[in-house]
Amino acid sequence: MKITRPITALTLAALVAACASPAPAPDQAPVESTLASAERPIPELRELQWIEGQPTIEDLGSTETIRATRVGALKVIHMNTPANQVVVARLLTAGGQADLSASIAGIERLSLSVAAGGGTASTPKDAFNAQLDAIGASIGSFAAADYSGISMRSVVEHFEPTWELFTQAVLEPAFPDEEVELRRARQIAEIESVRDSPDALVGEMVSDLYFAGHPYANRQVGTVESVSALTTAELQAWQRSLLQPDRMLLVVVGNIDHDQLIKRVAASFGRLAPTGAEAPAVPAVVHSERALRIEAQEIPTNYIMGYFGAPALDHADYPAMLLATRYLRDRLFEEVRTKRNLTYAVSAGMATRKANFGYLYVTATDPAATLPVMFDEVARLQNERLDPLALEKIRNVFLTGHYMNLQTNASQAGMLADHELLGGGWQEVDTFLDAINAVTPADIQRVAQTYINTYQFAAVGEPSELPAEIFGVSPQATDEVDADQVLGEESDAPAAP
């Protein structure tokens, strides 16, 4: 697909003059507070700063369906989808968990949740929701490891009123105390629910073990203690701190006119003054030996998950590693479940983060019989060249799933955001599939040898059935924890209604 390079930098006076929606005014909140401290690194609440005059517009390139434009300091990626009448917009700020510390973990998710659902200075919550309900639109929030933000979804016919509420939620959220307490109770309930789910608990445990000392150790959902301690003023200050256009990205997928979209952006987010801020760096994760962490529970089966290093989306090995883990997943299912009936649930896969990881997962009543079969399949992948027909089969299955996953505008917006913020840029949305098609059996063997090692395992179950030697871990690299160490102390906060 041909890429059109940047061509001009234009002023926007004529376009903005025709814009029907004026820029939302900054709210009347206090200019600053004394929130920031070494223990609670929360930026001071500041007024929104706007540029003088109209923002410049710069064409950053295009394909047949995608156009990238810089409006002021904000980058906008627009994918036109004439096949349907849904419009999805996601306004993201890069950083995510790398911005958090243990004492304030959970602040970003909670602040965005309240901003998106608590009404605005111009439109109280009930009226806000009534307007959305009347047109079948929605506004929500998301908080991932590397970015977070607020999103909207509507049909093309109702894009304008939804966009107006969307900009209000971002620029002038109300933060009513009752909404803060409602959302806080829900978030704490979600944290505590992990205690009742060995599956979820083993995932939290292996993440804590693998990312110990790393920025990803501070989860977006937070802990009971950290979420309980957040004040409304802190949440408001944090949400405001995310509005730095240098770190932001707007992705819009929908059948709307590009020039009209840019007009609206120029009258709202495009006027935010640049701050020069950059997203924090995310260091690589390095482990020199295998490790194991166990939580003892009297349950019928043992839940086991292990992480290992993996290339990030912007790495040349990513496509090969993606197919390698898909092939390994199928082999584990065949050997562990189908042939030997050792489990009902076994898998392998890979995440999508700046500091990326792959994983092995199994539930097993007899780990001593199950884990050797899994390790044998890993060794086979590392030591034997994959049959070309087997690779072609797994490639075709992947491509079918890839296209099926992109059937919604929301998933296409997510894909564009991932390639722009975690990969080599939005232009690689198309070339990524070329890279998948170019993977060879030798590539599969090489990445398996390079990355699938030095496992960090967590297990929930009977310790006598989980000796360190079956994981290939030394006893000195094994420890036991309880759920309170993973989730924080239990809260006396009321349950969410």
UniProtKB/TrEMBL annotation:
It comes from the Bacteria. GO terms for molecular function: metal ion binding. Residues 230-396 form the Peptidase M16 C-terminal domain. It holds the Pfam family Peptidase_M16. Gene3D superfamilies: Metalloenzyme, LuxS/M16 peptidase-like (3.30.830.10). Keywords: Signal. Residues 119-220 form the Peptidase M16 N-terminal domain. The keyword Signal applies. Coiled coil: none annotated. Residues 1-25 form the signal peptide. InterPro entries: Metalloenz_LuxS/M16 (IPR011249), MPP/UQCRC_Complex (IPR050361), Pept_M16_N (IPR011765), Peptidase_M16_C (IPR007863). This is Uncharacterized protein. The lineage of its organism: Bacteria, Deltaproteobacteria, Bradymonadales, Lujinxingiaceae, Lujinxingia.
